[in-house]
Amino acid sequence: MNSLHIDSRDLARRMRVQALQMVHRARASHIGSALSICDIVAVLYGQVLRLDPKQPAAQQRDRVILSKGHACVAMYAALAETGFFPVNDLLKYGEDHSVLMNHISHKVPGVEFSTGSLGHGLPFGAGKALAAKRLKQDWRTCVLLSDGELGEGSNWEAMMFAAHHHLDNLIAIVDYNKLQSLTTVDKTLRVEPLADKALAFGWAVREVDGHDHAALAELLGSTHREPGKPSFVIAHTTKGKGVSFMENSVDWHYKSPSAEQLALALEELNHA
Asked: Quick check: 137 and 60 in contact, CB under 8 A?
C-alpha cells in the first residue's frame, strides 16, 4: 500500500477553501483551528500516509487520529479531496442527520475515531500502536493534537505508556499555534518547556515549521526517527493560516465568516 503522492500544497489550498465554505454554510465554529492544521494534514494525506481511498479499512493502512476534533472541517476536506467520499457530500456538513458532524465522527469514511472531548486521541492512538506491535504489523499511527489540549492529564499518561512500551510506530504531532479558545496557551495553562517535557517522558522530539511542506514531508515520512522511542513533533503553526485577517486572532476560534468575509478569504486563497 503506497501513499497517494498528491501535490500537498494544492491540496492544502483546496482544503482551506472547503473548510471556509463549510463553516460559513453551517454557521459553525473553529475555522482558525482548522486552517492551522491544513498544511500538516495535506502532507500526511498527500505524501506520507499509506492509504487507499477505495479501501479505507484496509488492514495495512496507516492510522491518523485527529484528537483536536473541533478542527474536523480540515480532515473532512482532506478526505473528500483525496477520494474517500464525494466532494459534494461536504455540502451536508453540520446538517441534521449528517454524518459530517461538527466534531469529527468515525461514521465518515477514512475517520478512525470520533473525538470532541480533548485528551482522548493520544491514549487511543497509543493503543493502536501497541496493537500493531503485538500483531507484528508495520503500519504507523499519527495523532494530531492541539497545544491547549496538552492541559489534559490523559495525554501525559499516554506518553508514559507509549515510552514504556517502546512504541516507535507512534507519532504525536502538536499543532502549536499558541492560542486556545479565548486567549493564549501561556495565559491559560503554560505548556513550556514543551520539548524538555516530552524528552523527559522518553520520546524522540523534533520541532518543525508546521507550514513548510518540504520539512514536514521529510520529518513525517521517515519510518522511525529513533528506534524504540515514540516520536513527538512540535509543529509551530499560525492559527487561521492562509487568511490574513484570521491569522493569530482568537476571534476565529468561535466565529464563522460572513458572506463578505468569506469572499475576501477565498480571493486571498485563490490568488495565493
From this structure: yes
